[in-house]
Amino acid sequence: MSKKRREIPVFDHPIIETHCHLDYLKDRPLAEILEQSRKVNIERVITIAVSPENLAAVRELSQLEPWVYGTQGIHPHEAESYSDEVEAEIREHARDDKIVAIGEIGLDYYYDNADRGVQREVFRRQLQIACDSDRPVVIHSREADDDTIAILQEFEQTLTRRGVIHSFTSGAGLARYALDQGWCLGFNGITSFNKAENVRDIVRMAPIEQILLETDAPFLTPVPYRGRENAPFYLPFVAEKIAEVKDLPLDQVLAQTYQNSLRTFFPQP
Predict the structure, then answer these.
(1) Could you give the CA distance from residue 242 to residue 216 in angstroms, rounded to a whole number?
(2) Dist. CA 47–CA 59, nearest whole Å
(3) pTM of the model
(4) Residue whose C-alpha is closest to residue 143's, from 119, 165, 118, 111
(5) Which of 82, 83, 106, 173 lies 20 to 30 Å from 203, alpha-carbon distance?
């Protein structure tokens, strides 16, 4: 390597990784990734389901360690593979002990990998699962702000746990709606990218009480490790960037985002 990259900082306050895809990580053995994450004080990890093929894999991963958790849901890219059988599987496991949310669900009009009408139907059906199972939701929304708002409005009274719009890259309109309705916004390595001033503008807008930290690993590796596969152990760089953008003490960002994560995914009875 031509220049030495800064070591990953280790903070006294623990961090919760609210969104990654452990089954997609290929560069290093998973046990090594989890060990390295613990060394930088990642206290809990949530690995996210996206397709019928990895619903069971996520459940298995959530059993690896007491501090690894999962979700159940179908990504909008996979909406056309949704079926009554898939829905039954999600419903069956929605309230498993190590399953903390319904997701990753939503709308993606950027890639249009699935028919938009099908995406909307599948989004609604999975929001209903969240309502019925009293689980929060992990939402993916890309180039679909208006329809995301319209569908969430249909569930304002029944979706009591809310959740997060993850990897937030949408406009101020969706941000304001979500924040007003009590949703969190999830931010990751994109906040450190040179051309992501639009995302940093939303970070400035969002109250720190409604921000969650995530990596979306193996994607979106933060500076200074762009070009490498992302992993939960890079999360301290995201925390630093949020503190910088919001001009807040790092300790405050770490403490508040930790509490936000507990409130969203691990509420006390």
Answers:
(1) 16
(2) 9
(3) 0.98
(4) 111
(5) 106
